[in-house]
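Notes from the 1:1 (GR / supervisor)

We went over the backlog. Supervisor wanted to see one worked example end to end before approving the batch request, so GR pasted a single chain during the call. The sequence is below; no edits were made to it. Supervisor asked that the structure be written out right there so they could see what the output format looks like.
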Amino acid sequence: MLATEDLTLHYGLSKILHGISIQASLGKITCIMGSNGVGKTSLLRVLSGTHPSSGGRYLLDGSDVTNKRPDTLAKAGVAYVPQGRFIFPLLTVRENMETGFACLPRKDHFISSQIFELFPALRAMMDRRGGDLSGGQQQQLAIARALITKPKLLLLDEPTEGIQPNIITHIGEVIVHLRQQKQMSIILVEQYFDFAFGLADHIYAMTRGKIVYDCHKTRADKTQLRESVGV
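Structure output shown during the call:
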């Protein structure tokens, strides 16, 4: 579903990504692990189109989408749940979800019952403002909004950050369910080692903007991986 070839990224004169080559398959969870500041979020910004790469190629389902605009990538099936969630605080839960309609044909402008099967707590909150929700509820809303776009590729940036353990567990269950549906590829950027390792099919670890570990989980050495990500 996704492949990158020698992606590089600069912020001004600073080189942030150094020749990143990864793959992510349909129906699989690809985890990108690493400590703060190693370039994980920058990589997701490239994959979501919110920051252009400086070099290399980005292929989505076999098509070259290098440096396509975010709205173009969204219509092509890329959904991004950014670190910090970025829900609209003054819009209701319903209105936040409906912003996902923007990249869909009019016939698909509805909230599927599957959303409430995955996140039942949101059903009772539809008329509440997004800014009044807890951090964990906002994270559920952000993922729900992404799923409304019917993605082929779901990008999740630190979905466990700053939320309570029971919701972390629930989000893990949702991610597993989405994998079982085999309708999308999931890229999970995560620092919470046990959460990420437990979900992963394939693992990459990053240090200083480079991939330093690349392995299918069944062959992963946890000690070596922990050393690679600095935990």
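Supervisor's comment: The longest strand covers residues 2-11.
Batch request approved.
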